Structure formats: C-alpha cells, structure tokens
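We were asked to recover a plausible sequence for a given structure. The inputs and outputs are reproduced exactly as logged, with field labels preserved.

PROBLEM: sequence recovery
POSITIONS: 235
GIVEN STRUCTURE:
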C-alpha cells in the first residue's frame, strides 16, 4: 500500500494505491473516488459486539468499507468530513490512542478497537472513548485544521485542551482535569484539559470541532416565518 497525501494542511486528500488482492478499511463516507475495478464490501469489522462498541462509544461508524484491488495499481481517494490535514502512520506493534472521529482508514494488520478510558474522562466534551489501534500496517488519521506533532521526554508534562488531541502513544500517562478550578472552567472559555506526561509522541489539531460549534450555534437565529416557510439566518 502506498499513500500520497495532497493539498495539506487545509484540505488534505489521501490517494491510496493498492497491490493486487490488497485491501484498505475505510471509515464510512470517507471515499471521494475510486478505480472502477476495486471490489467494495461493507462489514462490521471485528464482529457485531466490537463494531457496536466502536459506534456507540467511539464516535465511529458501525460499518467499515473494505476496498480490495483485483490487480496492481487500484486507487481510492479519501477525505475527512471537516477541512484539515491527514497523517499517515506506520504501525509497528506499539499501541496508539486515536481521538474519536480522527480515524480515517487502515490496512490489514491494524486492529481498531475502543478502550474504556475511565469515568474521569466522562467530563470531557470530547474523547469519552478513545480508539486504540494496534498491530502492524498503515494507519491513516485526520484532523480538523493542521496537525502539530510533539514528543515528550520521560517525566515531561504538557496540558492540552481535549478537543485538540488527535493521537498519543500508550506510553504517555494522562490525567483529565479542569484547567484552573470550576470557576475558570465556566467563565474563562477553557474547560476540560488533559495533562499528558511522557515519554512518548502525540499529535494535536489546530482547530476544535466543539469550539467551532460553540461559536457557530449562537450565530444562528431562531427559525422565522417567511412566505409561509421556515428559514435559518446568520446574524
């Protein structure tokens, strides 16, 4: 499998080229275009229970689409629903935690599962359940905005708004907390954060879906009647 990412970082597009009989598993709705000779199948990958858990608690689709090349050179173009970047990660057996909604695709050999991250994470508006990716192969993740990579040394800590996390290695310890007490949480605009402590690598996204919605929703006027119908307007 070869992945060519174009138009970074704002409107990234992943062009995946497959060898004969090679497959790529893709999040539902991510396909932009494909070679006509690719075989497409839709399945609850990992079984019904695992797929149901991934869908209900991981924010991912119950079904994954599998694209298989019948001859060398078959391609499929992939894109996330929000404008942003795409990162290609070669998995080498080390577990990686992926923020809900950032999974885009993976090759055979990469297992995508959900892991209960504890009741403490419940208060974060994002990431109640992280996807835990393991195995060997290619993993493709997406972001809202640009992807910012970081590496923490052993014992080094960094505080991140939970809405900006994309991935972090399982070797990183994390603690979910308020940024500076509940008063600051409610009035500062900075809510639940993750304190990450190394060693390990992580990636952040430069924009947050929740922050965007918090800005957008108040801009929408209540529906008003206009010529007998309803409409929404931007203030």
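RECOVERED SEQUENCE:
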């Amino acid at each position: 499998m070869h992945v060519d990412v174009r138009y970074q970082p704002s409107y990234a597009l992943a062009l995946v080229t497959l060898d004969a009989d090679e497959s790529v598993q893709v999040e539902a709705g991510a396909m932009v275009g494909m070679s006509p000779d690719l075989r497409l199948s839709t399945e609850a990958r990992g079984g019904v229970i695992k797929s149901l858990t991934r869908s209900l608690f991981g924010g991912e689709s119950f079904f994954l689409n599998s694209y298989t090349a019948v001859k060398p050179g078959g391609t499929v173009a992939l894109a996330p629903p929000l404008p942003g970047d795409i990162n290609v990660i070669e998995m080498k057996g080390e577990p990686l935690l992926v923020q809900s909604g950032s999974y885009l695709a993976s090759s055979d050999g990469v297992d995508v599962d959900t892991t209960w991250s504890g009741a403490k994470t419940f208060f974060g508006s994002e990431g109640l359940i992280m996807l835990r990716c393991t195995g060997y192969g290619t993993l493709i993740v997406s972001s809202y905005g640009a992807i910012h990579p970081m590496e923490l040394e052993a014992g080094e800590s960094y505080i991140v708004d939970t809405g900006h996390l994309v991935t972090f290695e399982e070797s990183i310890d994390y603690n979910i907390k308020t940024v500076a007490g509940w008063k600051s949480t409610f009035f500062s605009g900075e809510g639940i954060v993750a304190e990450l402590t190394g060693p390990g690598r992580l990636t952040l996204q430069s924009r947050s879906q929740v922050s965007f919605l918090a800005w957008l929703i108040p801009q929408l006027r209540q529906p008003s009647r206009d010529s007998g119908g309803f409409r929404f307007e931007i203030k």
